[in-house]
Amino acid sequence: MPKRPPERLVYYLDANLDGPDLVGRLRVGGMSCEPHRDHFPPDAEDVVWIPEIASRGWVIVTRDFAIQRRPSEREAWITAGASVLMLRGEKLSAEAMSEMLLAAHADGRMDNFISKRRRPMILYLNSVGQLAVHFGGERRGGRKK
Question: Closest by alpha carbon to 73, among 94, 44, 102?
């Protein structure tokens, strides 16, 4: 029986990542992404947009590691059942971030990885496109044997 293709996910780029260069590179590379500026004002509070984006089932892409420590934001993404993808690395350019994301996205790998996990979750993505679960993200249906 052939494998079912992974669910195609939408990636929401936080306000600190939604520049046109990164958005353009990701879209050309085949990723479905939505920039913050197309949906909210630039100064929108995280506790306002996080539940809205999570309710759409979109994956939040950010470099804001404090989102997991600030009590109100932590409560927002946990309560909303959000999937948060944190990009790891120092002073990443749009080119470097797009390479990371597109490497992880190749062949539906990232969509498949995320779709097989329960929300809420925080995933880390490193500079070579490797994904790791940081918080939550238990596999649906138990552990793979």
Answer: 44
Q: pTM for the whole thing? A: 0.92
d(CA 99, CA 111): 16
Q: Is residue 40 part of a domain?
A: yes
Cα dihedral: 120, 126, 131, 133 (round 10): -40
Q: How many domains does the chain have?
A: 1
Domain span at residue 60?
Answer: 11-136
pLDDT tens figures, 45-101: 999 999 999 999 999 999 998 888 999 999 999 999 999 999 998 889 999 999 999
User: Which among 64, 9, 63 is positioned nearest to 33, based on CA atoms?
Assistant: 9
Reading phi first (left if > 0) and then psi (alpha if -120 to 50, else beta), residue 112 is in: alpha
